[in-house]
Specification:
The structure is a single chain. The protein contains eight helices and no strands. It has 101 residues and is mostly helical.
C-alpha cells in the first residue's frame, strides 16, 4: 500500500519521480501527495493500479474521461468519484454496464 510514501520526508512525498514510481506499485499512494494530484501522468498510473485512487485526483482529472475509464476498469465503483460530466459519457456508461469489477 501507499504507507511507505506516507512515512517519507515531505519533500519526497511531492517529488514527481518518487511519487510516479510509488503509484505504479500502490495506486493509493496518491493520497499522500498534495502537490501532484493534478499531474495527469501520475494520476493515470495510480488509477491503472488501483481504481479507487480516483478519489484523490484533482477535480480537473476527475473529469478526464480517459482517467475515469481506467479507474472504472479496475473498480466500477470508482465512478462514484468521477465528475458528473463524465458519468453520463457513452463510453463510461457502456463500460459500467458490462460489469467491470
Amino acid at each position: 500500500d501507499g504507507t511507505a510514501l506516507m512515512h517519507a520526508a515531505y519533500a519526497l512525498q511531492n517529488d514527481r519521480e518518487v511519487v510516479l514510481e510509488a503509484v505504479k506499485v500502490a495506486g493509493d499512494a496518491l493520497r499522500v501527495t498534495q502537490e501532484l494530484r493534478g499531474d495527469r501522468e501520475i494520476v493515470l498510473a495510480a488509477v491503472k493500479q488501483d481504481g479507487w485512487a480516483l478519489q484523490h485526483a484533482s477535480e480537473e482529472l476527475k473529469a478526464d474521461k480517459e482517467i475515469v475509464l481506467e479507474a472504472c476498469k479496475q473498480s466500477k465503483d470508482a465512478v462514484d468519484y468521477a465528475a458528473d460530466s463524465v458519468k453520463s459519457d457513452p463510453e463510461v456508461v457502456e463500460l459500467l454496464s458490462h460489469g467491470a469489477e
